[in-house]
Amino acid sequence: MEGEIRQLGVREIAGQVRRKERPKDYFVHRSLASIEALDSQIRAWACIAPRANTIEAASAVDTATPLAGVPIGVKDVLHVAGMPTAYGAQLFARRAEEFDAACVGMLRAAGAVPIGKTVTAEFAYKHPGPTRNPHDLRRTPGGSSSGSAAAVAVGMVPVTIGTQTGGSIIRPAAFCGVAGFKPSFGAVPRDGMKVSCESLDVIGWYGTSVSDIGAIADVLLSDERVLQSPARRPRVAVICGTSLHALDADAREILVMAERALIDHGATCTQIAFPREFTLLVEAHRTIMQYEFARSLASVARVVRSGLSEVLLACVRQGRAISRSQYRRMKDVQSSLRDTWSIHFGDADLILTPSVPGEAPLGLAATGSSAFNVVWSVLGWPCLHIPFGRSRHGLPLGIQLVGKWNGDAELLGWGSWVESLRRDQGATIRSESRMASSVIR
User: Fold this and answer.
1) Is residue 228 part of a domain?
2) Domain at 374, CATH number
3) Which residue, of 12, 169, 404, 429, has the fewest CB within 10 Å?
4) Terminal alpha carbon distance of the chain
5) Both 374 and 323 in a single domain?
6) pLDDT tens digits, residue range 146-192?
7) 124: nearest Cα among 194, 57, 54
8) 196 and 244, same structural domain?
9) Residues 97 and 169 both lie in one domain
10) DSSP 88-102
11) pLDDT above 90 for 1
């Protein structure tokens, strides 16, 4: 059941419904059965909509729509009509929302069927939820969009919605081995989302492939098809590492392998040193995030303080200690560097860089490092994670492609081409095990 959803992908699922090869509610039934079979181990879902309501919604789908009958999950910081929103905090009465978030409404109008809310870290910050990595239940799935990535990885649904403030889409995509996309800042409307950081929060999504990512982008980003075949081979700026965090040997080998594949297929790759000015963006991210987060969560912390984690309360305290002049100074840094692509990367079409420092770490108390993500989040540039191989322990590894601000369609077009270069046999590094504890089948 779960394998069927993973193997077909969004376009084929909708195509089968559109061609009446499958009933409108067929894949919703498959998703619900998969969740029932697997989620006691993965714990990717915060809540599932009543089955009767979901089947009724699927049965009413217009088969002419581009996402007809496609089941989706939505991160539990976004409103979905008929489902409660708890923000990963477990503090609130389970009251069903009356209206969809804007992005959910757009997907529903395109024929998608929301079947439940996926687990998030507490208020999309650092305190992790209960979700486990499907490839090794002892390891983190990443955060804060942990449930969204894990649900796609195990085949419960073909696509899910997530959010990113620092690395909350790209990191879980990397750890769980799925495609993950963070659009340009401001590209997707945030109405109906709990916005914690006004200057950083972005709505993105996960899929089993870049094609799935593109199918959602067709609805949320454009009235035209996004995945256009590139007319030429790309010019790629390659950033192998930064001073922000060490890159482990397996992740570096995957990056080199990807660069070699690009060159072998006609791309022009140029090694670029991490721009020295960009190190200031790490401080900018921390300052902007803490300042805005503290003010967004101040009323929640005041009313239900005893029910919140110490890590969240510490961020609120730190943010309240930041002066408005410090905040404005870092906002100026953000603004001044956002339009410097040509200065630092010349005529490159995209940047090739790591998504994460290495495989998913052991343990569930933390969600891993966002060192390779926060700079792009501050800049607001679109990012795409593509699985590209495995570590010596059999865990997913991949690459991150970064595009120009508001160049989302171009990035996804290049990303589709890059994904096609992946060589399954050559992209496994000295695998010592075959995911012995994995629940993926």
Assistant:
1) no
2) 3.40.190
3) 12
4) 10
5) no
6) 999 999 999 999 999 999 999 999 999 999 999 999 999 999 999 99
7) 194
8) no
9) yes
10) TS--S--PBBSS--H
11) no
Please give the pLDDT value at position 354: 96
Known active-site residue 75:
yes
Catalytic residue chosen out of the listed positions 31, 34, 117, 144: 144
Token look-up 């593509």 returns 386
To the query of whether residue 404 is one of the catalytic residues in this protein, the response is: no
Paired with 237 in beta bridges are 270, 351
- Based on the structure, what is the number of domains in the chain? 3
Give the chain's largest Cα–Cα span: 61
Q: Mark whether 144 is an active-site residue.
A: yes
Q: Is the distance from CB of 406 to CB of 388 less than 8 angstroms?
A: no
> Residues 31, 34, 75, 146: which is the catalytic one?
75
- In this structure, the answer to whether residues 93 and 178 fall within a common structural domain is yes
Whether residue 101 lies inside any domain: the answer is yes
Please report whether residue 428 resides in a domain: no
The tens digit of pLDDT for each residue in 286-337 reads: 999 999 999 999 999 998 888 899 999 999 999 999 999 999 999 999 999 9
Reply yes or no on whether the pLDDT at 425 is more than 50: no
Residue 433 lies in a domain: no
**Domain that includes residue 288, residue range:** 278-337
| Catalytic position from the list 148, 168, 296, 355 | 168
Q: Are residues 121 and 181 in the same domain?
A: yes
Quick: pLDDT tens for 387-415. 999 999 999 999 999 999 999 999 999 99
pTM: 0.95
Distance CA 112, CA 122 (A): 27
93 pLDDT more than 70: no
How far, in Å, CA of 229 to CA of 212, rounded?
Answer: 15
Residue 144 preceded by cis peptide, ω within 30: yes
What CATH number does the domain containing 78 carry?
3.90.1300.10
243 and 379 fall within a common domain? yes
For position 428, what pLDDT does the model report? 46
